[in-house]
Fold Phosphate ABC transporter ATP-binding protein PstB.
Amino acid sequence: MASETGTEVTDETSTEASEQSLLGTTEVADDRGAGPVASTETVIEARHLDVFYDDVQALQDVNIEIPEKQVTAMIGPSGCGKSTFLRSINRMNDLVDAARIEGELLFRGKNVYDEDVDPVALRRKIGMVFQHPNPFPKSIFDNVAYGLRVQDMDVDEQQVVEESLKKAALWDEVKDQLDKSALDLSGGQQQRLCIARAIAVDPEVILMDEPASALDPIATSKIEDLIDDLAEDYTVVIVTHNMQQAARISDKTAVFLTGGELVEFDDTEKIFENPEHQRVEDYITGKFG
Ligand SMILES: Nc1ncnc2c1ncn2[C@@H]1O[C@H](COP(=O)(O)OP(=O)(O)OP(=O)(O)O)[C@@H](O)[C@H]1O
C-alpha cells in the first residue's frame, strides 16, 4: 500500500468502489482525471491460475502481480496462452463453453470468479480492445456513447464522448464529423475509436490483444504513442507478437512459453537486456518461437 504520498485513502476508496461495482450494486463516482499517481499498487493478481479448454491445459500455475498505471506486455510464441490469460482477466473466457478455470484471478483483491461478481460490471472496470478494430455500424458519436447508454450511466454524454475521443487521440480528426459512420474511418482511426469506446465507461484497466497487428506502420506508431499516454490514467495490459513493440512501449514484460507457463516477469529492460532464464534469452534473441 502506497503511503509516502498519502495515496492510501484514495487507493482504499477505489478498492472499495471497484468491489461494489463488480457486484453490480453501486455506481462508482466519476473520478475521471483524478490526477496521475505513480504507483506500484497491484491491480490484477493471478494466483496459481490454470486454464483448460476441455482436456487441453492452456495456462499452468500462473502467478503474477500487475501494477497500476503501467503498461504490462505479454509476449511468447504462438499458442503459449497469452490471449487466454488476457481473456481470463475480464472473464471473456466465460463465453467459451470448453473453458475452465482453476486458481484465483484477483482484481483489486477480489476474485473475479466469485459467484457474486457480475461479469458485465467487471468488464466495465476492465475494458478490452481486440486485434481487429470492431466499431459498431453506427455513428462515431454513438459508438463512443454506446457503453454509457447500455450501462445507463448518469453522465453528460457530450462531455464524455469528447473527453474519450481526446484521450484516444482521435478528437481533432473527427470532431466535425461525429455523425458520420464509424465504418468510414481508416483502420487506425477505427482502432482509436474502439479505444475511446473502452475509455468512455471509465475503466481502470484496458486489455489489448494485439491492437496494432492489423495496422500499417504509421497507424501502429500512433497507437503505440497513445498506449504510453493511456498509462497515465489506466493500467494497460497488452498482448503482442512484436518483441520490439513490447520493448518500446511496456514497463513490465511477462514471457509465456510453450505449455502455458509464465517463465519470467520483470521490468521490460531487465527482460530484454539480462533475463534470468536461458529459455527467455533464447526466445528474445530469436533462437526459437
Ligand atoms: N476457444 C478455444 N477452444 C479450444 N482451445 C483453445 C481455444 N482458444 C485457445 N485454445 C488453445 O489454448 C492454447 C493457448 O491459446 P492462446 O490463443 O491463448 O495462445 P496465444 O499465445 O495467445 O496464441 P497466439 O499468439 O497464436 O494468438 C492453444 O493451444 C490454443 O489452441
Q: What stands out?
A: DSSP finds eleven helices and ten strands in the chain.
